[in-house]
Specification:
With about 625 residues, the protein is of the alpha+beta class. It contains 15 helices and 23 strands.
């Protein structure tokens, strides 16, 4: 009571058209959520935390508000696909005390919120209870359309103390087989006034917690394992999950599409001693379709050889976006059939499982594409240079697609070897386009006999002429066409490029740094000096002219080349290279070979901050033997 209003990531939302007062002095929460599988769980967490912090809200009302928010945000994410704006606030009600008002907005007003009248059994739509749940729990709700936005709102009133939610319904007992189950799932302590609504909240609470557990899981086998633990032993004696592979899934089921059939990803039984025998029985009899894809339960043959002659089993097809992804099967021993409340609850869970599997597969596809693309942008092996030991550390960040850092070490002919270490502004497909352009051109120009300055001059012009257009085209392909006010986006490249020419007693190194961290030369006596002069980034100035520096690496000399993932590694407000930190770290490597120098610098960079590095990391050590 009287808490300071909570406000997070404020967005603007007019309320003059809504049938209640606008946000006033009472606490409120505003936030914007990205459209994605994590949005419903994040919304539930925020509303739960806010209502708990504000106080003065009935416990059951907190649970109802969380369920309404979960359904509305899920509806917006699945069917609008835009960012979701959430408002949760308190409102004084003259008779019941404090009410909770929830608003969920999206930016696709042409897509109405999905709802439908009660449907025949086993044909519940993919979007679940949706607005029917909201209508059941809310005192009032509605939809408001504005230019470019749609808002679904709901007001939830507290139940007067000691009064059942619906006296007439409370007098009618719930189906006997389901009462104990739903009581066990219900989030509130058992009370004398519990009725069907109270029991239903147990099922809804189970689904909300299941959604939280499944959201953000990036491995489809882990999704299958979590599903089995959610179901067994609370809803069934055993559970199995089959997954269609990506190719055979296109035709519906593996056997029909000519593929290897579904893969039995998970088998779980309340008695672990039955698991292996049950697995063998289920592998002999995978599920087969009996008609068009439906998410409702279908009878499944009871595995009598593993579990005895008497029992009931049901199979649910896991479907997301109209595409079958697998099958979920549950079973219980004995002659008693599953209650309708259980079959409906598992069907709702199955839809959430299918969405989680679809999200995990999409992530896996993106990771695979990024890995393949990354391998194509980097050399297959480091060249062997007479009289020179080399060592490389390359650690791209996993998120965001291909790395912006790259390296190369290759023979250029006529007794010359060339090396490069660079960093493209940005990451992902745009950076990949620039790297895919720059690295082959470096090799081509070097093998054509161009010296270090000439290579950089030509590469700079190439980036200005061609890479901007190519990178912008890649960006449009991934994120859509640019707006009318958006021009082409230049992609800058920092590059350290050099040429090595072994001679009797050492190696001559000609190198130039274009906007890149300067290389450091470590002598056998522990002295450290910079080995090049700073020059302009590539792809910035039309008429830039580059120059080179020449040094000789003698026995025991080591040249360290890094990207800014090393020099700008952060620990609070400090960076690794503050106060010549990199030079000090290199000085401590005197007497070590190239591999040990690279390993020590890497370790010091990682140990500099408490969290893992937030940028790509690359370093190259060249040491004269």
């Amino acid at each position: 009571m009287g808490a300071i209003p909570t406000q997070r990531e404020t967005f603007s939302l007019a309320t003059d058209a809504l049938p209640y007062a606008p946000v006033g002095a009472l606490p409120h929460l505003r936030t914007t959520l990205d459209a994605g599988s994590l949005a419903p769980g994040a919304a539930r967490d925020l509303v739960r935390a806010a209502l708990t912090e504000w106080g003065g809200v009935a416990e059951h009302l907190v649970g109802d508000a969380i369920l309404v928010v979960s359904e509305l945000v899920t509806n917006a994410v699945v069917h609008a696909g835009t960012d979701v704006e959430l408002l949760c606030r308190l409102e004084e009600h003259p008779e019941c005390g404090r009410a909770v008002v929830v608003e969920v907005s999206d930016h696709h007003p042409s897509r109405a919120p999905r709802d439908a009248p009660p449907e025949p059994p086993y044909e519940t739509p993919e979007y679940g209870r949706g607005l029917r749940l909201v209508a059941t729990l809310a005192d009032a709700w509605g939809v408001t359309y504005r230019r470019g936005a749609k808002t679904v709102w709901a007001r939830l009133l507290p139940t007067p103390s000691g009064q059942p939610y619906d006296t007439e319904e409370a007098a009618a007992p719930a189906p006997g087989a389901a009462v104990g189950l739903l009581e066990a799932l219900a989030p509130e302590p058992q009370a004398a006034d519990r009725g069907p609504d109270w029991l239903n909240r147990g099922a809804l609470s189970f689904l909300a917690e299941a959604s939280d557990l499944l959201a953000g899981q990036l491995d489809e086998d882990l999704v299958a394992a979590l599903t089995s633990q959610l179901l067994v032993p609370r809803l069934a004696d055993w559970c199995a999950v089959w997954l269609e592979d990506e190719v055979s899934g296109r035709g519906g089921w593996g056997e029909w599409a000519g593929g290897p059939g579904p893969r039995l990803a998970r088998v779980w039984h309340g008695n672990e001693g039955h698991i292996e025998e049950l697995r063998r029985a289920l592998e002999k009899d995978p599920p087969r379709p009996s008609g068009p894809p439906l998410s409702g339960p279908e009878p499944y043959p009871w595995p009598g050889t593993a579990l005895g002659p008497c029992g009931t089993a049901l199979a649910y097809r896991l479907i997301a976006g109209g595409r079958p992804l697998g099958t979920l099967a549950i079973g219980q021993a004995g002659p008693r059939a599953f209650p309708d409340e259980v079959t409906g609850l598992v069907e709702d869970l199955g839809r959430r499982v299918a969405l989680a599997i679809g999200a995990a597969r999409q992530y896996a596809r993106q990771v695979t594409i990024s890995a393949v693309l990354q391998r194509g942008l980097l050399p297959g092996a480091m060249a062997e240079i007479p009289g020179v030991r080399s060592a490389l550390v390359y650690e791209p960040r996993e998120q965001g697609g291909p790395s912006g850092d790259f390296y190369d070490l290759f023979p250029a002919g006529d007794g010359r070897w060339c090396f490069a270490i660079g960093d493209v502004q940005g990451k992902g497909p745009e950076a990949a386009v620039v790297i895919g352009l720059a690295r082959p051109w470096l090799r081509l120009l070097a093998r054509e006999g161009y010296g270090v300055p000439d290579v950089l001059d030509r590469l700079n012009q190439l980036l200005l002429d061609d890479a901007t257009e190519a990178a912008d085209a890649a960006a449009r392909a991934f994120v859509g066409p640019a707006g009318p006010a958006e021009g082409p986006q230049t992609r800058f490249l920092s590059l350290l490029y050099g040429e090595l020419a072994p001679f009797e007693g050492g190696v001559r190194c000609t190198l130039a740094s274009a906007g890149h961290p300067l290389p450091l030369l470590l002598g056998p006596d522990g002295s450290v000096a910079t080995a090049a002069r700073p020059q302009t980034l590539l792809g910035v100035i039309e008429d830039a002219t580059y120059t080179s520096d020449v040094l000789e690496l003698r026995h025991g000399d080591s040249l360290l080349c890094v990207t800014d993932g090393v020099t700008e590694r952060r620990s609070g407000s400090r960076q690794f290279d503050d106060g010549d930190g990199l030079a000090a770290a290199l000085a401590g490597c005197v007497g070590l070979d190239a591999e040990l120098i690279a390993g020590r610098i890497r370790r010091l960079v990682h140990e500099f901050g408490e969290r893992p590095p937030e940028d790509d990391l690359a370093l190259l050590v060249l040491q004269a033997e």
